[in-house]
Amino acid sequence: MVFAARTGKTLVGLVSVAVLALTWFGQYFLHELNTGLATTKVFEDNEVHAVPLDGAVDILLVGMDSRTDEQGNPLAREVLDMLHAGDSDGEKQTDTMILVHIPQDGRRATAISFPRDSWVELSGGFGKHKLNGAFVYAYNDRFRTLQQRGVGIKEAERQAKIAGRQNLISTLETFMGKPGMIDRYAEVNLASFYEVTKALGGVEVCLNGPVKERKSGVDLPGGRQTVEGVQALAFVRQRYDLPNGDLDRIARQQAFLSGLARKVLSRDVLTNPAKISDVITAVKKSVVLSDNWNLVEFAAQMRGLNSGNIEFRTIPVLGPATIGGADVVRVDPAQVHAFVDGLTTDATGAAGTGTTPSATTPPSATGTTPAKRSPSGTPANTSSTTTTARPITGGEVACVN
User: Fold this and answer.
1) Which residue intervals define the domain Cell envelope-related transcriptional attenuator in the entry (predicted)?
2) 299 lies in which domain range?
3) Which of 7, 224, 316, 384 has the highest Cβ tally under 10 A?
4) Does the residue 2 lie in any domain?
5) How many domains, in total, are found in the chain?
6) pTM for this one?
7) Please, which pLDDT band fits residue 349 given cuts at 50, 70 and 90?
8) CATH classification of the domain holding 159
């Protein structure tokens, strides 16, 4: 079976739990964290490219539209119905892509969102397409090749997923102008929001007004409120009837993740061993991590992080367009290069003092990040009008559409 490269149902990556929850939990639950996790080999050399406390760590968080848990078990029909997930229709879309940059002292983190419909040059020779096609084009290509060689379906799917993940990493690194930058990979599926938010007892969010939309199943009042389970997924999954389309959905995702950071790093959670254990169990059901990830070292590095030092940003975009009958988001790679530079270049000997770009105008480049692997692909695009979103931090309850 080959997954179709087309727009599908949406999912934001709750993989931030795999980043934020482990920051403190790891010190007390190291055995539990290092056993039972699904892993994938996405880096060819399988090295730990940035050693904690000796260099910045850059994590790609990916939300996958999948109807199985991360152990490969299908989600129950009643769970899919409850989550308004529908049928998969053979789709395998990376509907959320967030780069989390953590300087060497581990006391702050910057999460940069990439709209799934960004029109970019894909690695692997697949040409220009939406960013969320980077995984599926490579997946399909590898799967077909392996099937022609007589490889069994299960093994072909496993290898095809690795090819898709590697192509997505390469595409994003080229798009950012930072080949070899990404050190870690984390991926989740539909079950994450239900499982993790139930384990946490909900996450606080804020809406500018009441929302009700049939396809996502969202039905929430305006104002500050706590969401969990089905409505947590619906909150971040709504795609239709939003004033600014996918950019509003990204703002929802960031507002939810900032609330998640506050909850995960709150005293109520950190002093409750039973709740911590429930969260870890939920994460294991729905998260895949790159197999070069030393969680013990990572937990030690992140010990000083607090929710107020987590900032959520979105790359600058040029606006919507229709290309080949598809609705896309136009982007200028040169502006994206400068934007990412400004957020991820940390001053030598003073981690945490990197330049932060303006939220309304394209930033100037402040430096470069040394390559850790060889580059792949060369994107190109130009325009003169840029829009960027206001940053959201983990220390606030941001009201969104």
Assistant:
1) 94-265
2) 16-400
3) 316
4) no
5) 1
6) 0.80
7) very low
8) 3.40.630.190
